[in-house]
Amino acid sequence: MKVIVYPADEHGCGYHRMIWPAEAARAIGCDVEIVPQSKRKVEFVMQGSVVKDVKISSDIDVVVFQRVTHSTLLQAVPLLRSRGIAVVIDVDDDLTLIHPHNPAFERLHPRYFGAQTTDGGRHMHSWQHLTLACMQATLVTVSTPALLPRYAAHGRGRVLMNYLEQRYYEQPHTDSDDIVWPASVHSHPNDPEVVGNAIARLVDEGAEFMSFGEPPITARAFGLSHETHIYPEYISVQDWAGEIAKYGIGIAPLADTKFNASKSWLKALELSAVGVPWVGSPRAEYTRLHAYGAGILASKPKDWYRALNQLRSSEVLRKELSDAGREAAAQLKIRDHAWRWVEAWEDAVRIQRS
Question: What sign does the dihedral 152-153-157-162 (CA atoms) show?
Answer without folding.
Answer: positive
